[in-house]
Amino acid sequence: MAVLAVVTAFGLAACSSKFKTYNGPEVTEIFVFKGTRKMYLMHHDRALATYDIDLGFAPDGHKEQKGDGRTPEGTYYIDRRNPDSAYHLSVGINYPNTEDRERAKEAGVSPGGDIFIHGGPTKSSDRNKKDWTAGCIAVTNKEIEDIYAMVRNGTPIHIIPSSTPIPVMEGGESTVLVAGMAPEVEGTLAPVPATGESAIVTDELPSIDDVLAAEAGSATGTVVIGEDVDLIGEGEPVE
């Protein structure tokens, strides 16, 4: 069962700046599920954080060309970051890759680009609107501050199509099976005893604001990501 927890000794340090430092478990990969509009920052088979997300204004299907409003699908990597983003902060996804460029070339169109995970809307018309981006993955400004600090360049991100079924396994746990999907996803997730398939158990993942309070005097207590904690140092952008 994935658990959202950050050990007090390895938390996020906050200050008045939007930049934070993070000394917790490494984010080894990111999973984005279009169908449930959820994003998980994973440490191997354990979820460090989960977020509700918005997608492009035409969210279904893989991005094929500039201006189509779709969010890409498949496995990509975080390859850059923008501390001066128009949407507070952002981390970039390496779309288009070689296959995307070749597909667009054959179709005689531009594949587009500039796909990021970023903060909330700046236009009043986009506030409280679902799936308002041009193809990016959006969270709140507070949440992107955590993501910007936690996620390193080179981190794989798996964007799962809405069409991927979410079956209910024995015990009523909602799972997302990844068997038969991108090979690089295989072997990174915990097996489900009922089937032996690789899966992420999503039904009991706590939200980021539901982390258990630290027990008094406990060295393994947890802190709420995004809340003020004892400063480890001045918050600086992650290189």
From TrEMBL:
Keywords: Cell shape, Cell wall biogenesis/degradation, Peptidoglycan synthesis. Residues 28-160 form the L,D-TPase catalytic domain. PROSITE patterns: LD_TPASE. Pathway: Cell wall biogenesis; peptidoglycan biosynthesis. The active site is at H118 (proton donor/acceptor), C136 (nucleophile). Pfam families: YkuD. It comes from the Bacteria. The keyword Ribonucleoprotein does not apply. Residues 107-128 are annotated as: Disordered. The keyword Cell wall biogenesis/degradation applies. This is L,D-transpeptidase family protein. It comes from Maritimibacter dapengensis.
